[in-house]
Structures are given as C-alpha cells and as structure tokens.
Specification:
Layout lengths: L1 H8 L2 E4 L2 E5 L3 E3 L4 E4 L5 E5 L12 E3 L8 E9 L8 E3 L6 E8 L15 E4 L4 E4 L2 E3 L15 E4 L5 E4 L3
Parallel strand pairs: 1-4, 2-5, 3-6, 4-7, 5-7, 6-8, 7-9, 8-10, 9-11, 9-12, 10-13, 11-14
Length: 166
C-alpha cells in the first residue's frame, strides 16, 4: 500500500535499495516515473500473500498512447505461490523501460509451471526498451507450458524498439 500511495502522490518515485513486498498490482500513471537505485539493489516483489488474482500483474501501466511513463533500474520478482506476469506495459511509444530484470522465483516450487508471459506488451504499449533481462535459473524442469513466453508482444499498436535484450 505504501508504494502505491507514493505513486499516487508523485510523478517521480525512487525505490531505494531493499526488498519491497507488495500484495496487489502497482499501477503507473501515464506520466509517472518509477526508478530504483540499481536492478540488483531495488527489488519490488509479489509477496507470498498476493491478494490480486493470477491474471493480475505485479506492475501495470495505464493504456495511453501519449504516455511518457518510464521504469528503470529495478528487479521485479515473483515470490508468491502462483504464476504471475511481472510487467504489463500499455504505455505508448514515448515511454521508456531501462535496466529492468524479472525473476520468477516461485517457479522453483515443485509442480508450478508458468502459464502466461513474464513481460507483456499489449494494446497501446510501446516505447524504447533498454537492457531488459530475466533470471529463470530457479525454474525446475524449464518452461514446458506451450502458452508461456518470457516476453510477449500481443496486438500492440505503439511503436516499440528493443535494445540489448538479455
């Protein structure tokens, strides 16, 4: 709640070093900027008591083709006991994603398989994406679900460019 309150109160929100557990989807407005100290230091994690449904992402943006939203230098992590999309991006072509890493820690749980994408760009989603990275080494037995994608761009109408994907 504190992180969503910070987002509601300001256009620019800095996530200091540390692990910040959230139990519901965080939503970035069309001209908000969420930034961390570094992707190995500032961690936003879906808590084990995740209250939103499995179809709700950890972090989402508003669907606005003229958005100037930016997201930078964070680790988005799923530590809940269910598969989650970590980022659902719908901010338009003037938006920026820089230095973001996703970690699906919960998938180390026996029998749990990814069902949706870790990163999803859809609708008016676009912008310039730099240095997107992911850690899936904790997934036991890989990603056998044919529906799963690390990154899924689905029906996106925004201009979209990727640089240095990892």
């Amino acid at each position: 709640r504190a992180m969503q309150a910070a987002l509601a109160a300001g256009r620019k929100v800095l996530v200091p070093p540390g692990v910040f557990q959230v139990s519901d989807t965080l939503t970035l407005g069309p001209h908000q900027h969420l930034m961390g100290a570094a992707k190995h230091l500032s961690i936003v994690a879906a808590s084990r008591d995740w209250k939103a449904g499995s179809d709700s992402p950890l972090l989402a943006t508003s669907a606005d083709p003229s958005a100037t939203t930016s997201l930078s230098s964070l680790l988005l992590e799923n530590t809940s006991d269910r598969p989650l999309t970590l980022l659902h991006w719908q901010a338009g072509s003037r938006s920026v994603v820089r230095g973001i890493m996703g970690a699906q820690s919960a998938y180390g749980t026996e029998g749990l398989r990814p069902t949706g994408p870790t990163f999803l760009v859809s609708g008016t989603g676009g912008g310039r994406w730099y240095g997107l990275a992911a850690e899936w080494n904790r997934m036991k037995d890989g990603t056998r679900n044919p529906q799963y994608r690390h990154l899924l761009v689905k029906d996106s109408t925004g201009g979209l460019s990727f640089y240095g994907l990892n």
